[in-house]
Amino acid sequence: SEVTDSMDRTLRLAGKAPINKVPSIDDLSMGNSLIVYNTPNSIRTIGIKLITNDNSETPTVKMDEELWALYKSKNYDELLIKVDRILLNNSRTAYAWNSKGEALFMMSRYKEAISSFEIAIELEPKNYSVRARTSIGDVLFHLERYDEALVEVNKALEIDPEYAWGFGGKAKILRRLERFDEALDMINVALKLNPELGWSYRVKATVLRNLKRFDEALVEINKAIKLNPEDESFYAVKAAVLRNLKRYDEALVEINKALKLKSQDAWTLGFKAKILRKLKRFDEALVEINKAIEIKLV
Question: Per its UniProt record, what Pfam families does this chain match (predicted)?
Answer without folding.
Answer: TPR_1, TPR_16, TPR_8
